[in-house]
Amino acid sequence: MSSGSAGAIARYETAIGQLQSYVGDPIATIDGALAESPDFVAGHLMKALTLATLAERQYAPAIAQSIAAARDHGARANARELGLLQAAAQVADGDWHAACRSLDAVLTDFPRDALALQVAHLMDFYRGDALNLRNRVARVLPHWSREVPGYSYVLGMHAFGLEEMNQYPEAEETARAALAIEPKDGWAVHAATHVMEMQGRIGEGIEWLVSRERDWAPDNGFAFHNFWHLALFHLDGADHAKALELYDRAVHPGPAQMLLTLVDATALLWRLVLDGADVGPRFAEVADEWESKLDGEGGNYAFNDLHAALAFAATGRDAAMARLLQHVARAAESAGTNGAMEREVGMPLIRAIAAYGRGRFDEAADLIAPVRDIAHRFGGSHAQRDILSLTLIDAARRAGRASLARHVLAERLVAKPGGAWGRRILARIDATSPATH
Ligand SMILES: [Fe+2]
Known about the structure:
By secondary structure, this protein is mostly helical. Helix content is 73%, strand content 0%. The chain has helices at 6-21, 26-36, 41-52, 60-72, 79-92, 96-109, 114-126, 130-140, 151-164, 168-181, 186-198, 202-211, 213-216, 223-236, 240-251, 259-274, 282-297, 302-314, 318-332, 337-357, 361-372, 382-398, 402-415, 421-432. The chain is globular and about 75 Å long. It starts with 5 loop residues before the first helix and ends in a 5-residue tail after the last helix.
């Protein structure tokens, strides 16, 4: 580091640990470091890059301010800081792919830069880059060991990357190795949870999360998402009451503080409704939140926009849907990473969800089908994007296209032989259109 008092650097170390563990507030900690040492270039860069990982437009002014401060104090900035500065500027400019290349250049020379690795991993997630969720971590792994602080978190990231590359046994083994070092590593718990989700190991998934809840839940900013996974396991068994209890207690106990949690809340409600559950006033509450953020965040990130569309479709909010589509169409014309995401994935899917909401199921199915296999381009996990398959199957069934519904459902029946949800959907299709062969 080219600047910063010893106290500020100590706070930086604390903030890195908070960022890796999701326990505590790294932004508050780094603000403390910057108050103590206003010329702390690495601190300004950490603030910019950490805020960027939230993928919300509301933080753009703070990110720009941090980048400007890093430049102002950066006359003696070293090579690593200059690399991080370049990455931060590229994120701020909307080029997430370039930012990840810059972060990788930092990691080439500084493979133990935990900030560069953590931020790039989350950006890989937002960009739907499964290859680098695995390989970017693999490239630095030889430089880490049990003797290096934070090693468990690197293993946890590698485990998630292995899972998103469908290497389930290796992913689970790596997640368990991370947890042997740090049982509270919520990201490693999450990686193994994904393995169980993808393999349809429903009972085991519930046991896995419940038995470890005291490790991954208390004071953990990521706990809402592991609770979301737990609710999905209960939903598989048609335990709507339990899924809703988890929703009320842990996924959406009040207005969402982050769009990440609003996305999960929306996705869970949509799945529950697809499965025939009565979710009461919850969807209206969530749609209110999306609507209040629409002009600020609409068109900022296609994956979030899709979830806003789900909330508007579920509550019949045609005017809000039309406004969302305007934001998305404008974003689709822009350069940058999200522009392409909106053009290729976000806009067709949002049109599909709007059609579904209006009861035009044939059109919805036709819009989802060609995009589903490239939908990783707008990020999220396989488990999150499963909502597209579920919606396509339901739209096809309602449109009277039982063959298409059964065709897509077959994927689930093969991948998750232990899951009950697929068989339930099949029974629903059979009840609508009895199989003829
Ligand atoms: Fe997940």
